[in-house]
What we know:
- There is one protein chain.
- By secondary structure, the chain is of the alpha/beta class.
- The chain has a single domain, classed as NAD(P)-binding Rossmann-like Domain (Rossmann fold), CATH 3.40.50.720.
- It has 9 helices and 7 strands.
- Strands 3-2-1-4-5-6-7 form a 7-stranded parallel beta sheet, sandwiched between helices.
- The radius of gyration is 17 Å and the shape is globular.
- It starts with 8 loop residues before the first strand and ends in an 11-residue tail after the last strand.
- The relative contact order is 0.15.
Amino acid sequence: MDLGLQGKVAIITGGARGIGLAHARALGREGAIIVINELDAKAAAQAVEELARDDILAVSCLGDAADEALVVETVAQVAQRFGRIDILVNNAGIGVKPAYPVENMPAQAWDQMIHVHMKSTFLWSREVIPHMKAGGFGRIVNTSSMNFTGGGRPGVAHYAAAKAGILGFTQTLSKEVGPFGITANAIAPGYVETDLIAQFSDEMRHRLTSQNPVGRTCQPSEVAALVAFLCSSQAGFINGEHVCIDGGRRDFYWGS
Ligand SMILES: NC(=O)c1ccc[n+]([C@@H]2O[C@H](COP(=O)([O-])OP(=O)(O)OC[C@H]3O[C@@H](n4cnc5c(N)ncnc54)[C@H](O)[C@@H]3O)[C@@H](O)[C@H]2O)c1
């Protein structure tokens, strides 16, 4: 199937590692030009090198995905350099270590979670919309999590709230941008093999796999394949959707 991504310009936040890097590979192999926003300069340089070895044109822009000035300037520069912006994948995120029950959660931990996940998703979306409207085409994919459905496990209320907020944001956004050839969708992955879950204990890993109907965790490339399709020209009627990619496991079952 031709996904129609040749020559499209895609911005991916947190794109130097894990799921974000898998998005960059998948979209790049389909012919898209990749712009990676990333906090970690070393990881960003390695990612751009790796993508170049795969004949993918990729550039990086360093900094906090939720820094308003950076987002405004980066989007303007990308539009000037490449003449268009077609795809935005809001992927930047942080893990939940340390976890805090709500009664002990520092406000700073709450703020950081909302900042990195929700504020960045809002800012990049706001800035790319005029460019997508100008091109008559746009694909925005936001990263939620299976945590939004049944809530997260105890200690991750801030993460679950941020990911649920992304869903409400996406559904509203989809109604605003739909008339302009732009879609906005969210993905809700289960446990994906990245640095984010590398910190889990063996006991936790056993639970994750034994409680999953498919009996394993997910690979970043599997999430990226879903996102590549959502970003494709074939997916123009999928809008305001949240697509679970969790092996059929809809939430974190807190039991044995
Ligand atoms: N791994 C999972 O099991 C899983 C499950 C559901 C959802 N998610 C979500 O998928 C996304 C990617 O997760 P991952 O597992 O690939 O994580 P990861 O830690 O492997 O990669 C995240 C990347 O984002 C970057 N980053 C973090 N904060 C940033 C910021 N403020 N600005 C710019 N870049 C920033 C990191 O440096 C890193 O390169 C996150 O939003 C995460 O919440 C992950």
